[in-house]
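sry for the spam today, last one i promise. struct tokens for design, 234 residues
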């Protein structure tokens, strides 16, 4: 089975189990969420569900519009029933690395407003420790003028290497939906207390958000090569 099919089975199962009528639904970002929105659109049409969708990125907003779903915002829907989102890696404590697609800030804002955060992913994202499988590091969204001192403070404290994320179809760095830069921290110590790390990094002036989601995820669905889904709860 392809990775895409593994993503799809996880996404479909999560939407079927968590999305109900009269639901405020947080729409995550990334490749796996595409299948979640596809399944949601099918159910809205078949079951006449009433669902308001809150996006976590420009991509998520476009998905909602493409499928003719009801678009909402936090101004009018500050409490979300469930958010379904992807992850770059999930450890045995249900700590997440997110932000590989550059949407970590809005993803964390929406997750923080949600009664439940549910992660959907393929089997390659399921790890014992952060860094076992995902080798691109922890993303950190920063104010552009501060990226050098932030980089230095984190590496002096915890080691590893930090790179400014480069854009692909643009000269220079990636610029987020919020107009910021992203640093990718390739950490070397896998036994850090991620809650402490998150608190330290977020206190550095110029840091907007870090792609560590600690004690936020309540359930994860991992699509497997044979077409089954492994579920894990916090």
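last one done:
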């Amino acid at each position: 089975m392809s990775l895409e099919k593994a993503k799809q089975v996880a996404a479909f199962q999560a939407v079927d189990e968590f999305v109900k009528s009269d639901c405020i639904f947080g729409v995550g970002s990334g490749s796996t969420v595409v299948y979640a929105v596809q399944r949601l659109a099918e159910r809205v049409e078949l079951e006449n569900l009433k669902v308001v969708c809150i996006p976590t990125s420009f991509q998520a907003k476009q998905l909602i519009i493409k499928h003719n779903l009801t678009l909402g915002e936090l101004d009018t829907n500050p409490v979300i029933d469930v958010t379904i989102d992807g992850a770059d890696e999930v450890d045995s404590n249900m700590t997440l690395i997110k932000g590989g697609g550059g949407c970590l800030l809005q993803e964390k804002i929406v997750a923080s407003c949600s009664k439940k955060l549910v992660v959907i992913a393929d089997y390659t994202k399921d790890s014992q420790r952060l860094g076992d499988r995902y080798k691109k590091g922890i993303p950190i969204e920063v104010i552009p003028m501060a990226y050098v001192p932030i980089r230095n403070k984190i590496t002096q404290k915890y080691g590893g290497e930090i790179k400014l994320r480069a854009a692909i179809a643009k000269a220079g760095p990636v610029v987020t939906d919020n107009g910021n830069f992203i640093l990718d921290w390739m950490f070397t110590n896998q036994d850090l207390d991620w809650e402490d790390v998150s608190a330290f990094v977020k206190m550095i002036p110029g840091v907007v958000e870090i792609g560590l989601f600690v004690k936020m995820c309540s359930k994860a669905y991992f699509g497997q090569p044979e077409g089954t889904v492994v579920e894990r709860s916090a």
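The mean pLDDT is 97. ok im logging off now
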